[in-house]
Automatic annotation (TrEMBL):
It holds the Pfam family MAM. Residues 32-76, 79-236 form the MAM domain. CDD domains: MAM (cd06263). InterPro entries: ConA-like_dom_sf, MAM_dom, MAM_domain-containing. This is MAM domain-containing protein. It comes from Ciona intestinalis (Transparent sea squirt). PANTHER family: APICAL ENDOSOMAL GLYCOPROTEIN PRECURSOR, MAM DOMAIN-CONTAINING PROTEIN. It comes from the Eukaryota. One of its GO terms (cellular component) is membrane.
């Protein structure tokens, strides 16, 4: 996986005796965009090179970050969301009593996204007078998943203080059928990496729903960041 921005073209070449060329065309506004390219090397000793081609004009900047490779399919291309410049395409956020917001990271202990490198996050604001047990819902776009394949839904969460508490309930959704995958208890002003395993019974198009349930009445803020899905068991960060 690569993130490339801003630029015109990013070409990726595989050098494994076959000179296979993989091309991804890019022309986006100035924010990070995920690029996911499936590869089938002919040799176990394959090498890959990245070629950035500047666009037309006197100034053109191209940045590449977070290059990773893993086995399995690029299942997360239309799912993964870091909330850069707001809610990602296909995602939806709702709540009857709570307020969603999408914000750039601020260099303070309470408003810094989890990598510490800037960026954006999603948040839910609970204010005085809202009912105990109020729920905010974040729903993914549809994503195709394969039967009997294990996937990890990986995400980062935090609250604004040690006295604030919330539960995140993660569900998988098919038409007419919702299945609880896991719960994550959050009561810390430090970012916490949580995960939920899903092993679909049928090959179909699923949605993942996050229910943020507030368990304390005082005014506070809950933050979400870097939601991803990948094949295999969860590889969570433990601090």
């Amino acid at each position: 996986m690569t993130h490339a921005s801003p630029g015109q073209f990013l070409n990726v070449y595989g050098h494994d005796g076959q000179s296979k060329q993989l091309i991804y065309s890019l022309n986006t506004p100035i924010y990070w965009d995920g690029v996911y390219i499936p590869i089938r090397p002919y040799s176990p000793n394959a090498e890959f090179s990245f070629e950035a081609i500047a666009g037309v004009g006197s100034v053109s900047n191209i940045s590449i970050d977070d290059i990773t490779i893993h086995s399995g399919s690029c299942v997360g291309r239309n799912f993964n969301c870091s909330f850069n410049w707001g809610l990602c395409g296909g995602w939806s956020a709702s709540s009857a009593h709570l307020d969603w917001f999408f914000s750039p990271s601020v260099n303070t202990s309470t408003l810094r996204e989890h990598t510490g490198n800037g960026g954006y996050y999603a948040g839910v604001l609970a204010v005085a007078g809202r009912p105990h047990g109020s729920t905010a819902v974040l729903t993914s776009p549809p994503i195709p998943l394969t039967a009997e394949q294990v996937y990890c839904v990986d995400y980062w969460v935090r609250t604004s203080s040690d006295y604030s508490r919330a539960r995140v309930r993660v569900n998988s959704k098919l038409p007419g059928n919702t299945t609880l995958l896991s719960r994550c208890q959050v009561q810390t002003p430090n970012w916490k990496n949580c995960g939920a395993l899903i092993t679909p019974n049928v090959t179909d198009v699923y949605q993942i729903e996050f229910d943020v349930i507030f368990e304390t009445v005082p005014e506070f803020t809950f933050l979400f960041d870097d939601i991803t899905i990948y094949p295999g068991r969860c590889r969570l960060y433990r601090n």
